[in-house]
Specification:
CATH superfamily of the largest domain: NAD(P)-binding Rossmann-like Domain
Number of domains: 2
Structural class: alpha/beta
Strand content: 25-35%
Order of helices and strands: EHEHEHEHEHEHEEEEEH
Helix content: 25-40%
Largest sheet: 6 strands, parallel
Distance between the termini: 51 Å
CATH topology of the largest domain: Rossmann fold
CATH class of the largest domain: Alpha Beta
Shape: elongated
Radius of gyration: 22 Å
CATH architecture of the largest domain: 3-Layer(aba) Sandwich
Strand order of the largest sheet: 3-2-1-4-5-6
Length: 219
């Protein structure tokens, strides 16, 4: 795979190192001369000096080879938006991943149809929610391209699903993936019996959580 990584900070440099270790080709683009000089010692001809929001810089980096994936991980959300849009609309790159530094900008990325985004802040908040002993429903992962999301729910004592098998549940808009009980996880199958305190992972379309709340949470 040939990839272009825009942004040579800690995130971009680590992504580039990992891709290279896995045997992929890439060009790392960095616009700060001081940072570029440091990266050049490590990546040599695989790093380019320039602003990846400029088309001639992307072309010099090899986007027309074509690049199979563009990863925009600069520290500036506006730059990541522009890089993502150029890659998709101008150069028809199918796979684009963009870093969202400020979660308040996520709606803009969605509006401009940048399909895959990564927000470290949102990930940390999700982990914090995961560690809170009492919670209702946690959104763990959104699969935008597939219009699906993965959520976690803890089965409450007295919930309609407590003590029932998975195949007895009237779930129309969701599918259970796994059940975590006493630190051990198992794949949710029809014969799996749910108990109060189980942490359940489910996959469903965004906004279709009502079935899960109705069955897994206490009325």
């Amino acid at each position: 795979m040939f990839a272009i990584v825009a942004g040579g900070g800690k995130v971009g440099a680590n992504v580039a190192r990992t891709l290279l270790r896995r045997g992929h080709e890439l060009t790392l683009v960095e616009q700060r001369p001081d940072r570029y000089e440091r990266l050049e010692h490590e990546f040599e001809h695989q790093v380019q000096l320039g602003d990846a929001t400029e088309m001639f810089v992307l072309e010099r980096a090899g986007i027309a080879r074509p690049a199979e994936i563009v990863i925009a991980v600069t520290g500036d959300d506006e730059d990541n938006l522009v890089i993502g849009q150029l890659s998709r609309e101008r150069y028809r790159v199918e796979r684009v991943i963009a870093r969202v530094n400020d979660p308040r900008n996520q709606k803009v990325f969605d509006l401009l149809e940048i399909p895959q985004t990564v927000s470290a802040t949102q990930m940390v908040l999700g982990l914090i929610e995961h560690e809170v002993p009492a919670h209702e429903l946690i959104h763990l992962l959104e699969l935008k391209k597939e219009n699906l999301e993965i959520v976690e729910v803890e089965v409450e004592s007295g919930a309609p699903a407590a003590g029932k098998r998975v195949d007895e549940l009237a779930l129309e808009n969701a599918r259970l993936i796994s059940v975590l009980r006493d630190g051990k996880a198992e794949i949710a199958v029809g014969s799996t019996t749910l108990q109060a305190g189980d942490q359940v992972l489910a996959i469903l379309e965004p906004g279709q959580e009502d079935d899960l709340r109705r069955l897994l949470l206490k009325r």
